[in-house]
Write a structure and sequence with these properties.
- The strands form 5 sheets. Strands 2-1-4-5-6-7 form a 6-stranded antiparallel β-sheet. Strands 10-17-18-3-19 form a 5-stranded parallel β-sheet.
- The chain is built from 17 helices and 19 strands.
- It is α+β, with helices and mostly antiparallel strands and 658 residues long.
- The chain has helices at 41-49, 61-65, 120-131, 152-155, 181-193, 198-227, 232-243, 256-268, 285-334, 360-423, 428-445, 447-451, 459-473, 478-499, 535-555, 586-605, 623-626; strands at residues 4-12, 18-22, 28-33, 66-75, 78-85, 96-102, 118-119, 139-140, 147-148, 160-161, 338-339, 347-348, 355-356, 509-512, 517-522, 525-528, 563-567, 611-616, 629-633.
- Helix 7 (232-243) packs across helix 10 and helix 8 (256-268) crosses helix 11 (428-445).
- This is DUF3732 domain-containing protein.
- Keywords: Coiled coil.
- Pfam families: DUF3732 (PF12532).
- Residues 200-227, 293-330, 391-425 form a coiled coil.
Length: 658
């Protein structure tokens, strides 16, 4: 069971100043009043106390005269009191809260008895637990390479409708217009609707981590393979050492270990210049490197041509085998007219089994063709795997040639740079010292990776674990469950839309969690909420959707607070500068009362498991509205969220909070 809001408390900046606004749980609560009396601050105060990462309370009397905020949360047999100071001057937000477990019915404590020592993250975890959220579950974030641990902050997407959201055609859920929030909402909806099985979610997260580990391992192994053969830079430095007289010329290609050993020998030994003339056939090292690169390019071209020929042969074999199998099926159907097993001459009728001598030649020809096709298919069947194996070998050889070509280019670049640097040195000794410096730099950076511990190739084990998890998850029906749940919720949205007499309510209505909107499937095509005219439609579909979702949460124990807060739904029927008079008349009044009737009917049907809090400008005389008003904050009765006696100086109306 999750919680509802039992009270909102504000503490003034002067000693002893406390103001509590109580709410009835399991009921419709209406706070009505004039503009700038603090009504809209109720939603932002609740948001702030429920571990918001920012300070959503708007500038005005509330910010100026309130030093701390608190909410009392209640569920059967339990009560949680959460208080949070207003930010200190110069700070964006207060990062510590006071969280107290209380006996049910305990009033808010005085400010001086509160200890603000619970870090924000810890408070968020406590609130998530109190809401019934399983914090061990992680769900994938949509379009982001990470997972989400659902929390109280995510649950509030379905509990708040601020003044600029309650009839917004483009935003269906709270905070949907903020960066990254749409993808987060898409990611957590399956969990809060109950479509996510915790065990399956854990397996999905494990599968994601294993796939990530496999990707990282393959990258490390690829890097190790690149460093396996002597890199182009190492070979170029070896060539420079020979050219500078630090090493004798070698006729054989050194291995990676030999290259590193020779480079260390050059670095560790004293400068001993080779005076023996190098063979004439050694030639210019740059020319030799360019020649090796040309040979590698030709080898790459030949390898590509062989692979293309082999793939073409495999394709031709497959085509021929297909045609041959089809021809064999046709001939086999004619084999009903078979030779007599006794005489091997006369064919037998497949119906009466009487001999038909005239068919001997035809049947024999058919049987010969079948034997020939069987032989051809057997030969092709044995050839194709061999060809495919040869393709794999050639592709592996091509990868090796490409790696060698890359190293060759590195060698050419390094030799070119080295030759340019050596040409600037005045004598051979300084050239040799320059080469040693370059070798030292190389050994200090790249070579240590070559000689370091080898990466353990555990790909087989990781792939085995991934395959096992994929097999376990193959029967997971999360997507099917989500589709089914959304279909049922959409039916309830349509029922409420019809009761509100909204446009398109006679067509199928669906909640689209990908676009985070409501869609009517009409004969002329889908119509999204943003394309539906009239603010009354926008308000109506918001109310119908949120009530239907909370009905689902209540009936299926979804870990979402059983509170829906609506900020001024009557704005659709009142002008922006409405001050309370005159009351709406005729159709507008009827439609507004209909909204409250739908809200109250849902609350009554859920029998105490849903609380709706509405803040309003309007103050209607109809009992449907009047009987649920818990506070009236008007200039005429001098009532507001912030008591008048707390205010010590006038505030410009433009700066006052709603």
């Amino acid at each position: 069971m999750t919680f509802q809001i039992q009270a909102v408390t504000v503490y003034g900046k002067q000693p002893g100043q406390v103001r509590t606004v109580p709410f009835r749980t399991g009921s419709l609560n209406i706070v009505t009043g004039d503009s700038r009396r603090g009504k809209s601050a109720l939603l932002t105060i609740i948001d702030y106390c429920l571990a918001s990462s920012d300070y959503p309370v708007k500038a005005g009397k509330v910010r100026k005269y309130v030093g701390a905020y608190a909410v009392t949360l209640a569920k059967p047999g339990q009560q949680l009191f959460v208080a949070r100071r207003a930010p200190e001057p110069g700070n964006a937000v207060s990062t510590v809260l006071c969280v107290l477990s209380q006996a049910p019915g305990t009033p808010p404590p005085p400010l001086e008895e509160l200890t603000f020592a619970t870090p924000l993250d810890t408070a968020k975890d406590i609130l998530s637990d109190f809401c019934g959220i399983d914090r061990t579950v992680k769900v994938p974030a949509v379009a982001r390479a990470q997972t989400i641990a659902p929390s109280i902050r995510h649950a509030l997407y379905f509990c708040f409708q601020a003044q600029n959201e309650v009839a917004n055609p483009d935003l269906l859920f709270h905070s949907q217009g903020e960066e990254w929030r749409p993808n987060t909402i898409r990611g957590v909806i399956p969990y809060f609707l109950g479509a996510v099985d915790p065990e399956q979610a854990a397996l999905r997260n494990r599968l994601r981590l294993l796939r990530r580990d496999l990707s990282v391992l393959e990258a490390k192994l690829a890097q190790a393979r690149d460093l396996g053969p002597a890199s182009g830079q190492a070979r170029a430095l070896l060539t420079e050492a020979v050219e500078a007289g630090l090493l004798p010329h070698r006729d054989t290609e050194p291995t990676v270990e030999e290259v590193l050993g020779l480079l260390r020998f050059v670095l560790e030994g004293s400068i001993r210049l080779e005076t023996e003339p190098r063979p004439d056939n050694n030639g210019d090292p740059l020319t030799a490197a360019i020649g090796r690169r040309a040979q590698l390019r030709r080898a790459v071209g030949r390898s590509r041509a062989r692979i293309a020929d082999l793939k073409r042969a495999v394709e031709e074999n497959d085509d021929f085998a297909g045609e041959a199998r089809e021809q064999r099926r046709r001939l086999a159907s004619l084999g009903l007219m078979r030779l007599s097993p006794d005489t091997s001459q006369a064919a037998q009728c497949p119906v009466c089994e009487s001999p038909i001598a005239s068919a001997n030649t035809t049947v024999a020809t058919i049987m010969q063709d079948l034997e020939r096709l069987d032989g051809d298919l057997q030969v092709i069947g044995s050839d194709t795997p061999a060809l495919q194996h040869q393709v794999a070998l050639e592709e592996e050889q091509l990868q090796q040639l490409r790696a060698a070509l890359s190293r060759s280019q590195d060698e050419i670049n390094e030799i070119s740079a080295g030759l340019r640097a050596l040409q600037q040195e005045p004598d051979q000794v300084q050239r040799a010292a320059h080469v040693r410096g370059r070798i030292s730099l190389y050994l200090d950076t790249t070579a240590q990776h070559v000689s370091g511990p080898q990466v353990e190739d555990s790909r087989d084990d990781l792939q085995r674990q991934i395959s096992e998890l994929e097999e376990l998850l193959s029967d997971d029906t999360q997507d099917d469950r989500l589709t089914s749940y959304l279909s049922l919720i959409s039916q309830n949205i349509r029922t409420r839309a019809a009761a509100l007499e909204l446009d398109h309510s006679n067509a199928p209505i669906r909640l689209d969690v990908n676009r985070l909107t409501v869609v009517a499937d009409t004969a002329d095509g889908p119509v999204r909420l943003a394309d539906m005219g009239s603010a009354e439609n926008h308000l109506g579909y918001h109310v119908a959707t949120l009530l239907s979702l909370h009905e689902w949460f209540s009936e299926h124990r979804g870990p979402v607070p059983r509170t829906l807060i609506l900020d001024q739904p009557s704005q659709v029927y009142f002008p922006p500068d409405y001050t309370g008079e005159p009351m709406p008349q005729g159709t507008d009044l009827s439609h507004l009362l209909n909204v409250y009737r739908i809200i109250n009917d849902t609350v009554q049907a859920l029998d105490g498991t849903l609380q709706v809090i509405v803040v309003e400008h309007a103050d209607l005389a109809d009992p449907l509205f009047r009987d649920h008003v818990i506070e009236r904050w008007r200039y005429s009765n001098n009532q507001a969220l912030v008591p008048p006696e707390w205010i010590t100086e006038p505030i410009d109306d433009e700066d006052e909070d709603e």
